[in-house]
Amino acid sequence: ELANRMSERAVDVVKLLMAQGQMLKPGDIIDSDMAQLIAEEMGHSVVRVSESDVEEGLNDTPDAPEAMEPRPPVVTIMGHVDHGKTSLLDKIREARVADGEAGGITQHIGAYQIERDGKKISFLDTPGHEAFTAMRARGAQATDIAILVVAADDSVMPQTIESIKHAKAAEVPMIVAINKMDTPGADANKVRTELLQHEVFVEGMGGEILDVEVSAKTGDGIDNLLDAINLQSELLELQANPDRPAEGIVIEAQLDKGRGAVATIIVQRGTLKKGDIVVAGSEWGRVRAMIDDHGKQMEEAGPSTPCEVLGLSGAPSAGDQLVVVDSESRAREVSDYRQRKARELEVAAQAGQRGSLEQMMTNLTEKGADKAPFVIKGDTQGSVEAIRSSLDGLGTDEVQAQVVHAGVGGITESDVTLAMASQTPIIAFNVRANKQAQEMAKREGIEIRYYSIIYDLIDDVKNTLSGMLAPER
Ligand code: GDP
């Protein structure tokens, strides 16, 4: 790859590496210092770029308030197995087709959009909270409203409770759909009462959470459910600027034999157009075609619209962000950079990064621990105290952050030792690590995370902790 980028022969690069005592073959990985040495040796000039350089400007342009327009809500359906999530999704979709609005075949692309009272609503077509959690673990939030399905002839079950926790952790408002109202044993009030115990206060019980009685079998109440979604959506005042280069989120993606990489995305802001050059995760491409949930070709897709995108170099992951960029070279640069980073992470993982944030979380889950330890170093007493008080107790019902050590000043070997003992990453706020500490951390696989904005720091920790919630069984 290095040879390629310099338009040199790989064999010449390998030779120079040999001269440096590095016996490597094409495909092996060298570090950036060695790459710079080789490149300069061959008469090329090297510009070192950092993450912020490469990814700068990708998604940091704020929208002017006057450019904002209302956008449809994106809805996920969650609940216990067999309570009727799939049936409900099918019925909602069917109801629209029956209205004659769509006609033709429906195509499962992972999301679909319907209309109620002239207002559009997008649904994620994968029921359950697995997809939801997977996306959130990547820092993505695709959902505006969560429908909690509870069967009226059953009751609140383990996955109902899980779903409630997920929605609450993500701060996504819920609507309760009490399903199977057609069954003889249906008792909606029993469901409402049981939900109280899990701090879900529905309207009927004097709370604010909308609840609707439905039957996914007969279709009764579906219209009320859609009305409730529209009402909730109005309360949320969902908005986006449609008039800018698009950004979206990947819902699912696969490699299709005939069509190549196919990614279903939901546009989050801007309008995606055929021919746009996009980066999605570490893949990139020119949008060759866009297809809606009826298999029809689209020319463009605005905010909250789901669509299949064809033309990417490979399949990105669910939760990856898709961003329009202004040139192919820019797209390639970002995608190259991200691929490189992914490989580096892989190498680091193989080397056993015991103290990385993610690795620590995995370890804790395996051990069933409920405290996630952190070591914090900051530039002033004030900042350290602020971070300590925001982090302590942060988390979910399953796991909470616990600051095991907090101090002022640069990171030293003693901090790394402490982090090793608790197998925790070190959170650095506006401070750096001295050389010995850096080397020790590297050797021992302790991750040092640098921050200069407290919000980012808290957000990262919060996201990681909530990603720990056990997946649906
Ligand atoms: P999921 O696991 O939550 O996706 O549940 P499904 O949609 O697969 O439904 C589980 C079972 O309940 C299926 O046999 C459905 O036919 C049935 N079912 C779903 N909704 C209703 C309903 O409103 N009334 C009745 N009687 N059966 C339902």
Short description:
This protein is an alpha/beta fold and 473 residues long.
Description:
The chain is an alpha/beta fold and 473 residues long. Helix 13 runs parallel beside helix 14. The strands form 5 sheets. Strands 3-4-2-5-6-7 form a 6-stranded mixed sheet. A 6-stranded antiparallel barrel has the order 9-10-16-13-12-17. The longest helix has 23 residues, at 328-350. The protein has 15 helices and 21 strands. The protein has helices spanning 2-6, 10-19, 32-41, 51-55, 85-98, 130-137, 158-169, 188-196, 222-236, 328-350, 357-367, 381-391, 413-422, 435-444, 454-466, and strands at residues 69-70, 74-79, 111-116, 119-124, 145-151, 174-179, 210-213, 239-240, 247-256, 260-269, 272-273, 277-280, 283-291, 297-298, 300-301, 306-312, 321-325, 371-378, 400-408, 426-429, 448-451. Mean pLDDT is 85; it is low at 469-473. The chain is 35% helix and 24% strand.
Bound ligands: guanosine-5'-diphosphate
What is the topology, as strand order, of the major beta sheet? 3-4-2-5-6-7
* Beta-strand share of residues: 15-25%
- The rounded Rg comes to 25 Å
Task: List the total number of helices.
Answer: 15
What average pLDDT do the residues reach? 85
Low-confidence stretches: 469-473
The major beta sheet can be summarized as: 6 strands, mixed
Structural class: alpha/beta
Number of strands: 21
Shape: globular
Share in helix? 25-40%
Family: Belongs to the TRAFAC class translation factor GTPase superfamily. Classic translation factor GTPase family. IF-2 subfamily.
GO molecular function: translation initiation factor activity
Organism: Pseudahrensia aquimaris
Subcellular location: Cytoplasm
